[in-house]
Design goal:
483 residues; alpha+beta; Rieske Iron-sulfur Protein; binds FE2/S2 (inorganic) cluster
């Protein structure tokens, strides 16, 4: 399904690259992070081009809920404990600076994208009242001690009961693709230009070669395995959004501190309800949209569903994005990834950091988010958990020796069947046709699992996804699966 952003804007197409070029900087990826980085670099007088394998904003940017906020859930108390006061302060201040920068650009470039300053609330519902309220109060205290605009609210204007909320004033929301349309007009972008390889200062595409003094990888999931080894530092999570008609516009953006709670924001007369987060490849039973529908329709009676869609986010072990030099071996390569669920704010902050770094200016947030940081002990547990998931997925010998009983597994429309000694992914189409693909992920060989909500084959190791015919949907894999 299309997101509400895709339905309501049509960014004019750009040509594919058909010649060799020599430029100051090449940005790979025309999502929010890539467009913003290219915009800042052009303002510095650099000759910049953006290379996009598909269309502008066609990756994860179109699937966001487009909240621009430093309110990232129940994090600040934990950030202080894990990284100390100064790093926690920089995290909050950097995200606040990103909100202000959006407003500055939107006013300067006169972009009509529904940008609106609103409070962001972190709420919790009645279940487990005392501990939930205590946690919210502690989080409020931590955030306000870090200089963030946080206050505790006993009551919020939601039509169901809560135990209160942490309120961050003066945050923002907007229409992400309208914003990108406004900025893209000013940039030199090539669409349908897939990057085939990068070596030194040279980028090889289907239509020509680019020689660039600086190369920025703004591609959601960095596609090169060496150098950088980003596949060891990132996994991907999926989440789901349902858009409804029939609710009065909200006067804020809402994010739940509860495991099963939903996030809410309005867009015009629509209510966007988000939730159902899980690691990519861990949704064999499905039912995520149904969970959101059940809860949203109970919390906002009288809703009528308009559309639904899902998103995929890169997550790091320590919860901080990776923004800076791709590797010490390639100081002229730069990377921007690992935003978790906060892609809009971190795209802006990342673009600010990279444009300063490339210009040789100090940036106060650069060290905190540098890919060369080693927050080893805080992230060790997460690293081990991720490594365990990947190692389990890498047991692709299961392709040859399926467990007893698995040969008949074809639940609903999709599942695993065994033929001889090999296991395959099968999908039964509406007309009864059986589509069979190999279960081995072409990225690094993990075994794919069926996602009934999206009718896709998803990889639990690093999050590549394929449709039922084996066509690639999400990276880091670079090619389709042969049946
Ligand atoms: Fe890396 Fe599948 S093995 S995404």
């Amino acid at each position: 399904m299309e997101s509400i952003w895709t339905e309501t804007v049509n960014i004019p197409p750009r040509q594919a690259l058909t010649e060799d070029r020599r430029v100051d900087a090449a940005v790979i990826g025309a999502g929010m992070a890539g467009i913003l980085t290219a915009y800042f670099l052009s303002l510095q007088g650099m000759e910049v081009i953006v290379l996009e394998a598909d269309r502008i904003g066609s990756g994860q940017t179109k699937n966001t809920t487009a909240k621009i906020t430093s309110q990232h859930g129940m994090i600040y108390e934990n950030l202080i404990k894990t990284f100390g006061w100064e790093k926690a302060r920089l995290y909050g201040a950097g995200n606040q600076a990103a909100i202000d920068k959006y407003q500055e650009i939107i006013e300067k470039e006169a972009i009509f994208c529904g940008f609106k300053r609103l409070p962001a609330y972190l709420y919790s519902t009645k279940e487990n009242v005392s501990s939930n309220k205590d946690k919210l109060i502690r989080e409020t205290k931590a955030a306000s001690q870090l200089g963030l605009p946080a206050r505790f609210c006993e009551k919020v204007s939601l039509p169901f009961e809560t135990v209160g909320a942490v309120c961050f004033d003066n945050q923002a929301q907007f229409h992400p693709l309208k914003f990108m349309e406004g900025l893209a007009e000013k940039l030199n972008i090539y669409e349908n230009t897939r990057v085939l390889g990068v070596k030194g200062h040279q980028i090889r595409t289907e239509g020509g070669r680019i020689n660039a003094r600086h190369i920025v990888f703004a591609v959601h999931y960095p596609m090169l395995i060496v150098p950088g080894f980003y596949f060891l530092r990132l996994h991907q999570d999926r989440s789901y959004v349902v858009a409804y008609e029939g609710a009065a516009p909200l006067q804020g953006m809402y994010y739940s501190a509860d495991q099963e709670g939903l996030s809410y924001r309005s867009y015009g007369n629509l209510l966007l309800a988000g939730g159902g987060s899980h690691r990519t490849g861990k949704n064999e039973q499905g039912g995520r949209y149904e969970e959101i529908r059940r809860r949203a329709e109970r919390e906002f009676p009288g809703l009528r569903e308009r559309t639904c869609w899902s998103a995929q986010d890169c997550v790091t072990h320590d919860g901080l994005p990776l923004i800076g030099k791709y590797s010490v071996l390639r100081p002229y390569w730069h990377v921007i990834t690992g935003f978790g669920k906060w892609g809009m704010t971190f795209s802006m902050l990342g673009a600010m950091i990279l444009s300063d770094t490339i210009a040789g200016r100090e940036n106060p947030y650069a060290r905190l988010f540098s890919p060369q940081r080693w927050n080893f002990f805080p992230s060790l547990k997460k690293f081990m958990a991720d490594f365990g998931e990947s190692a389990a997925g890498l047991l692709w010998l299961r392709h040859f020796w399926g467990l007893p009983g698995e040969s008949e597994l074809l639940k609903g429309q999709g599942g695993i069947v065994r033929k001889g000694l090999r296991r395959y992914g099968c999908y039964k189409g509406e007309d009864g046709t059986l589509h069979r693909i190999s279960l081995r992920c072409p990225h690094m060989g993990c075994e794919l699992s069926w996602n009934p909500d999206e009718k896709s084959w998803d990889c639990p190791c690093h999050g590549s996804r394929f449709d039922y015919r084996g066509n690639l949907i999400d990276d880091p894999a670079r090619r389709d699966i042969q049946s």
